[in-house]
Amino acid sequence: MSDTLALVLRLLAIFVVFLVFPLVIGQTEHKVMAHMQGRLGPMYAGGFHGWAQLVADGVKFAQKEDVVPAGADRRIFQLAPAVALLPYLLVMVAIPIGPGNAVGQALDAGVFYVLAVMGVGVLGSLMAGWASANKFSLLGGLRTAAQLLAYELPMLLAAASVAMAAGTLALPGILDAFHWWWVPWQIIGGVVFFTAGLAELQRPPFDMPVADSEIIFGAYTEYTGLRFALFLLAEYAGIVVLSALTAVLFLGGWHGPFGADGLGWLWTLVKTVALCFVVIWLRVTYPRLREDQLQKLAWTVLIPLALVQIALTGIVKVVIS
């Protein structure tokens, strides 16, 4: 009974984090972009540092009319936001935040599980694009599918390099096998994994599927109110999941220079927040890539780099053994 209660409490904690952290990242993006680009609006709502901006956004989405296009496939249209959001909750269950039992559920094939479930989230965009009865939305969905096909492979290859180095597919096992010298050794794979993850989340500069200057807002053009808010929440939840996975696989997760046992969760949190800031910084810094540039980056740069990382890992493992 005690084991069941402990599992329930861990899952409840993950659910609370899932509801809170994406909102914090969304609020942080408002503030960071306001500072970097000199935007005054988000800094004034409510007074001190624009604390009420998140509340104002929530009220705005809640009061908007929920519109379903007349020609849309109603059931698929309404289901798409949930399909886009829920996979990230399932991924959080398998991410360890500290040593011991500081994980919702330890899985033997944790690496495959998180990558497979993250790929399901993209189906939400495909469903939204197909069901909206809008040509711009359909085009955005097709771009999403092309981007997924291109960037799923380098992401998987980069994660496979870490699993090969650790000799296990379990995320806690990878952290147990981690050594500090893995960071420079696996840095190529880390960059490939993080970049491919940004592309799968359709974050700038990889946001061609939602290019507002060309196809309005891609697969989400016809969405309003809370359904549109769920897509935004899915994006921010994806940022948290991608940053946490990168921290666990390539930066040592709960390992730190001191206090790893007692402060392991803090090191994971610090690394995750730092990577979330990088995601926001990249949005402000770089312009959107064209569709051909997106595909060229994946097939001619990221995949060869991931293969080089796997070859390097194999060589180092043979030398060590």
The 3D shape can be described as: globular
Number of helices: 12
Number of strands: 0
The chain-level mean pLDDT equals 85
End-to-end CA span: 43 Å
Helix content: over 70%
- Please write the string of helix (H) and strand (E) elements: HHHHHHHHHHHH
Instruction: Estimate what percentage of residues fall within beta strands.
Output: under 5%
As a whole number of angstroms, the C-alpha radius of gyration is: 20 Å
Low-pLDDT runs of 5+ residues are none
Structural category: mainly alpha
Profile the largest sheet.
none
How would you describe what is shown here?
With 321 residues, this protein is mostly helical. The protein has twelve helices and no strands. The radius of gyration is 20 Å and the shape is globular. The mean pLDDT is 85.
